[in-house]
Amino acid sequence: MTSPTTMQNSQVQNTQKKYSPLKEFWKSFKKQKAALVASIFIVLLIVVAFIGPYIAPYDPFEPNYDALLEGPSASHLAGTDEYGRDIFSRLIVGAKISLMVSFSAVFLGLILGTILGLISGYFGGWIDKIIMRSCDVLFSFPDLLLAIAIVALLGPGINNVIIAVMIFSVPSFARLVRGATLNAKENVYVEAAQSMGASHVRVLWKHIFPETISELIIFVTMRIGTAILAASGLSFLGLGASPEMPEWGVMLSSGRDYLGTSSHVVIMPGIAIFLTVLAFNLIGDGLRDVLDPKIKNN
Amino acid sequence: MNYVKKLVFVILCTLLLAACSEKDNSNASNTGDKSTTESGTASSKNELVIAVNENFISMDPHNTGDTNSSSVQETMLEGLLGFDADGQIIKVLADDYSISEDALVYTFKLKEGVTFHDGEQFNAEAVKANIERIMNDESLRLYSRGFSLISNVEILGDYEIKVTLKEPYGPMITRFGVAKMISPKMIKENSADIPKKPVGTGPYKFVEWVQGDHLTIENFDGYWDGGERVAKITYKPVPENGSRVAMLKAGDAQVIYPVPAQNIDELSNSKGVEVNKVPSTIAHYVSLNTYKKPLDDIKVRQAFNYAVDKDAYLKVVNAGLGLPLDSIIPSKTVYYKQQKMYEHNIEKAKALLAEAGYPDGFDIEIWGNTNSDTMKGMQFIQQQLGQIGVKVEIKSMEEGTLSDEIYGAQTPEDAKLQMWYVSWSAYASDITNATKPLFHSVSFPPNGANTAYYHNTEADQLMDEANSISDVDRQAELYEKLQEIVYQDTPWIFLGVDEVVYGVRSNVSGVQVNPTGGLDVKNAKVE
């Protein structure tokens, strides 16, 4: 991970030319065209998620039995579903659910994983062993299978999906942070802080945690894509959002009977999921190119 | 060097695997080719491929619960009685029969000159062996369906037999149609094989059954009723809807059953294919727990019935198929009497709800399984009741859990069920099973399927009397009254009756589906 020398260099730069990390970041990120487009898409999506209910052309819950399964047209941009509900409006309103689920799951996983990773890497010894072996246990299950098992235990529902996706995110974060912590622990300034009598919490929070941030940011963006997929997958299986909700996975699931006859019912939410996941992954890639010191050094 | 060795090994393995799979493929396609070429030329006259939606479970006619298995059995095995295309009772191996007035004694005169596929004679001895097999074996499904009530089987002559019951049992006559006759030799010597390769008296005899792949039967030359039939029929379980449809279009199957609702239009417009619809005895309804608030109030239940648009239901949930359920039993069921339907009237529904003390509606749960049609139906109910201010929460549960939740309740007080989206099907000739388990107060869960906890003493009496007599006219009278009373009391939201849909190639005739959903190809012909 970050080597002591580069850190010192950047710190030197920092003091010399009024170096603004944000500006620097933006300069390199701008060059990542794909990631840039993806970010714009995500920002738009977040805006839509917030104002969705106000801009949706139709009530996403209102059935219209005279307009069942109509293809995309001027009045229904993405067509109507099996109850005659406007799919476009449902996608817009559903964006909020999909984003909310994935963001909260990933951030909860991030917090828990980071704490565990810091503790594990910093203290080492038996604490490290316990945490890492528990992570290994969780790793040994395929992500979605673990999530299904958790939801099966907790019962279906969107909150339990968040918990499930969170739980399978925790070990990845923990392992990542532990690695970064092990590296950062060796830094001279950490030793210095320790010798000056700084508390463990202070050393961890002020000196070690910042070292892990760049990697965490990359990983979070990547992980959100996975989380959206997992949440949609769970909803598709009937374990997540209740069937009337305009959650994208639910829409995909209830539309699958019409795949052969009115494929737009499935294709539209499919595209929404696909684009969103792709965008998050592209941003993640772009961020890695900009932030990851290993790549920078090359 | 080591690397090269490994590489060679991997390549060899791959080749070997490829060779194996190729062999399998060529085998498969060979047999496939044979059948298609045969069916392409002289064939089609002699062969029929039928694609159905589920695997066959058992060929034991005395222990079968699924429609597909009994459809196949229907071609190989026959009972004393049977069912016509409308599901009504006809005589098959019985030449004649009579029922005593107290509905306790059934006397059958048997057909002469009937032989089983293994050469055994069909006579009173054979019938006795079959009935005794069922009445002495609790593990058979039919045991608990009437045959456990048989006290005595008496042979009156070579071709005459008398069966006496301990107590009257209305559906017994239907059971004699369901209970197919197995060769007595097989029952005696080889009963373990009955579920795998049954021997009966039917127009077709068993050839082979490869689980999950196909089941083949062929024409039995010594059939007592003669007639011309196709030489060979192959049943293939094809659970995937799309594949089944594709098989019919391509001519790889001459009959598919069922046709998925969403493909009806597509198939109707295809050349060389015919799609047929038949009203079934499958009724869809929502049972309303009449024991507990708020559904204990008849006004609330009636309000629900007025709030739900049955035509829209059929259109949205059933892909436009089916008929509204306008009585407590489907129209194909014997003694059916049409009732005046609760028309779709939101205002009336709202008014009734207000009268019952719920002007602003209330929250309620609906339960159902995870089947996609059920989910669709529950959402539809949710939307419809939303119009009168009733907020419905959908709880879909895996079938096993659902059944535990519903039938786990030992008393009506324990029941957590409020509404259940479900369907019921009984033989068209068996009105007892279409009413008693659903509306009689002895059928509260866990003893029966009266999940509405419907209790009306008058209705109970009507059902009790109808079940204890054999006078057809009186039964009709009683059941008419029963339908009126129960329909008025609205223990259900009455939704619709399914139509079953099957597809055939245009050169195939004589295929029928009876109201219970059984596919009958005994008289199928290919031109």
TrEMBL record, chain A:
Q: Which SUPFAM superfamilies does UniProt cross-reference here?
A: MetI-like (SSF161098)
Q: Which regions span the lipid bilayer? A: 34-56, 97-123, 216-241, 261-284
Domain annotation ABC transmembrane type-1: ranges? 95-284
Localization of this protein: Cell membrane
Report how it sits in the membrane.
Answer: Multi-pass membrane protein
Q: Mind listing the UniProt keywords for this protein, alphabetically?
A: Cell membrane, Membrane, Transmembrane, Transmembrane helix, Transport
Report the family membership: Belongs to the binding-protein-dependent transport system permease family.
* Function, in words: Part of the ABC transporter complex GsiABCD involved in glutathione import. Probably responsible for the translocation of the substrate across the membrane.
Q: Report the protein name in the record.
A: Glutathione transport system permease protein GsiD
Native species of this protein? Answer: Lysinibacillus boronitolerans JCM 21713 = 10a = NBRC 103108
Automatic annotation (TrEMBL), chain B:
Record's keyword terms, sorted: Periplasm, Signal, Transport
Q: Which residues form the signal peptide?
A: 1-18
Give the protein name, as stated in the record: Glutathione-binding protein GsiB
Q: Does the keyword Signal apply?
A: yes
> What is this protein for, i.e. what is its function?
Part of the ABC transporter complex GsiABCD involved in glutathione import. Binds glutathione.
Residue ranges occupied by any Solute-binding protein family domain in the UniProt entry: 89-442
* Compartments where found: Periplasm
Which family is this protein grouped under? Belongs to the bacterial solute-binding protein 5 family.
Q: Quick one: where's region Disordered?
A: 24-44
Q: Which domain of life is it from?
A: Bacteria
Question: In terms of one coarse class, where is the protein primarily found?
Answer: periplasm
PROSITE patterns, sorted: PROKAR_LIPOPROTEIN
Q: Where is the composition biased (Polar residues)?
A: 26-44
